[in-house]
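Researcher: Let's continue the batch. This sequence belongs to Tricarballylate utilization 4Fe-4S protein TcuB, and it's 381 residues. Same format as the previous ones, please.
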Amino acid sequence: MSSVELMQEGKRQMQICNACRYCEGYCAVWHAIEYRREFTDKDMTYLANLCHDCRECVFACPFTTPHEFGVNPPKLFAELRQDSYKKYAIASPLGKLNFWATTVIALVVFFIIALVLNGSTNVFSKHLGTGGFYAVLSEGLLTILFSIFGLWMAFGWVFGAFRYWRDLKSEQTQPVMARDVVKAIKDAFALRYLGKETPDSEVPMQRRVLHHFVFYGFLLDFASTTLGAFYSHVLHIQAPYPVMSPVVILGILGGIGILIGTSGFIYVKTRDDRSATDEGAVKSGRAFSISLLLVAATGFLLLALRDTAAMGTILVIHLSTVASLFLTAPYTKFTHFVYRLMALVRYAQEERTHGVSAAPKPVAHSSHQFRKIVDMDSANQ
Ligand code: SF4
Ligand code: SF4
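Model: Same format as before. Here are the structure tokens for Tricarballylate utilization 4Fe-4S protein TcuB:
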């Protein structure tokens, strides 16, 4: 389906949902559609990024396929989200490369640099004690390279956020206030709309727990890297650090969180109901999980083998996965938090403006009860 056809299809489905409104207790999307009579392209991109993909609405829906209305909001929103990531991302050749291609390129480049600057004896020998890593790739070079990669990632996200927000803002009549931003950040950190409104349902709760593992695992690893930079550049204590140092402890805890979360996601997504999602979104989510898993797994391998002659090789592999994650971040599933956060800010502003202060309430029936009722009705006809 082309982007234009997808938008038309989305607007058709939203008109049906707005007339039905059965799902209004499930998540913020259903309040947001009630604030509208007509849907623009920008509205559709907003709703798509407000959806947390819990799938509860389609499991409850009597108007999904084989019904002639063919309503399927999670699939529709998944396709629209993929389109929005492409539409707002910064244009660069990196957008055409995936994680694997970038990792291989980074691997070759890092190996060449290490061999040319430090020689094979240094790269393939054992280095004990502080400063061991820098015998393979110098501290100054790593600082410059990873600062550039980090700045690129942040710039890509800010660029996408700015363009997306410009579109969201163009249809707003009221200004955004600081409290809208605070509420959106709180909702994003708590994953408010993923599973909390439907606590009887297993699938969203599973995804919620796994998402927390990945997200907080990533934050712990980020804290570990930041603390490592402080040790290195302010305290002048070079890596590798003792296992019981705060840098390594934070890194281990974060790595465990990422390993549990990403492998859990890869497993549960093999059992997903594919009719409720988009194949492109599944592939993109799986590729992102694998990339994070590889970063964490190679980090643990480096920790385990850092006192052996394999350290140089593992270090180069680990750094290549991290570099690739950073360089492709504006184009992968990694970018989803930027658009989700923007959509949540817009929703907080709309909720305040329209005077809906209460959180969406769970509907009387769980989706599974509702599905049973619909099935029984059909059987009795
Ligand atoms: S039950 Fe179906 S048509 Fe009704 S609001 Fe939910 S998804 Fe839309
Ligand atoms: S899939 Fe879940 S989060 Fe998305 S619109 Fe449906 S109920 Fe809301």
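Researcher: Any comment?
Model: The pocket of iron/sulfur cluster (ligand 1) is lined by residues 16-17, 20-23, 57, 60-61, 63, 71, 73 (CB under 6 Å).
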